[in-house]
Specification:
This protein is of the alpha/beta class. It contains five helices and five strands.
Length: 166
Amino acid sequence: MEGRSRIVQRLRRELGLAVPAKRPKKRRKGASTGLPTKATHRGHVWTWDFVHDTTMRGGKLRMLNVIDEHTRECLCIHVDRRINARKVRRIISNLIDVHGAPEHIRSDNGSEFIERGLREWLAENKIKTLYIDPGSPWQNGFIESFNARLREECLNREQMWTLTEA
């Protein structure tokens, strides 16, 4: 007796059906406007990324974390249900009001970070973008390390029931 997959293959052949080839997913990639650089002073390079979690009731939580790479100071942990490019721009604008504008911002190629409006706004404010290669989190080590510690020392130990509590 033939296995199911062999029967299906035989029927496809007999009917002249072809399975379309699977196309590789095209990754969107932001264009860096600055050269890869190591932070040499406060405000030289900021880095940002998201951490995802859920409340005890099952609601989504997204946290936008912003770090100054030179001082390794966490400038912001913004918690919300959804954070789009417009909200990212508003958060960064508030941080610039408090800390001054960085020369560079390093990030992955998340849709919120490569959105055209945000990139244009950064260019208007003379902030250069440094995008890491897709699938290369080690190129953004400061924020990845911070996110791992946040998860290990806070999120995995605390129960958050609501967005306000988070």
